[in-house]
Amino acid sequence: MRLRVGDQVSLFNNTSGEWKSEIVDIKNNLLIAKTICLISPPKAETSIDLMFSPIKYQNSESVIRQSTEMGIRSIFPTIFKRTINTKINLNKFNTYAIGAAQQSERLSIPNIYDLTNLKNQLEIISSKTILMFDENLKGVHLSQAKIKSNSEILVIIGPEGGFEEEERVFISKLSKNFLNVSLGSNILKADTAVIAALSLTFHYFS
Q1: I want to staple 159 with a disulfide (CB 3.0 to 4.6 A). Which of 83, 101, 112, 193 is the partner?
Q2: Facing residues of 130 across strands?
Q3: Distance between alpha carbon 155 and the CA centroid of its chain, in Å?
Q4: What is this structure's pTM?
Q5: In this structure, how many other beta carbons lie within 10 angstroms of the beta carbon of residue 205?
Q6: Which residues are CB-neighbours of 10 under 8 A, at least 6 positions away?
Q7: Phi/psi at 21 (nearest 5 deg)?
Q8: H/E/C letters for each residue in 117-140?
């Protein structure tokens, strides 16, 4: 749909809420609109972020869309030793997130960061409570996890084939608070594991 001056649109963000607005000018890539009335007030953001290994195109799309619908705050695509897909299209990821936010009537869009190696994620890992879902280690059930309220939580899902031992050591030793968490006895596909892990995390800590 092509937008024109005079069209009414819905504009939203997590600080101002959602507003019925009217387009007053369009210049190249700049759109100017005036607000008419408030549709819905801003909603509280979660403090849950996701670090995952990119997978095949459609599966990565599913991860972005569904994590956005659940309310994920930030997404950190990360290259692990066994990561197969080492390229992402950040513009497409953002487009998926915008569509999912609109569909779920969410008033914010997650921050999606560019793809980088695990070693470059030290600042992120060291500042958060880590929930690492590692199928190769015995983990606790989230209902048994001791996490302070209002904690900054980072859910980490590894690549297909799992984590290398040096990655486990890197994450566990350098995190602010580390928990290995179980998703049960079944081996899940990477994209299924992401959604299962986030569903549990939001259930217990959002």
Answers
A1: 83
A2: 154, 178
A3: 9
A4: 0.82
A5: 19
A6: 18, 19, 20, 21, 39
A7: -135, 160
A8: EHHHHHHHHHCCEEEEECCCCCCE
Phi, psi (deg, nearest 5) at residue 193: -65, -40
Mean pLDDT of successive 10-residue stretches along the chain, which has 206 residues: 80 73 83 83 81 86 93 96 91 94 88 96 94 78 77 91 92 91 75 88 86
Cα(65)–Cα(62) distance, integer angstroms? 5
CB atoms within 10 A of CB 90: 12
Fill in the DSSP letter of residue 181: B
Q: How many residues in the chain? A: 206
Spatial separation of the C-alpha atoms in residues 204 and 206, rounded to whole Å: 6
What the chain holds in terms of domains, given with CATH numbers, is 8-40 (no CATH), 48-205 (3.40.1280.10)
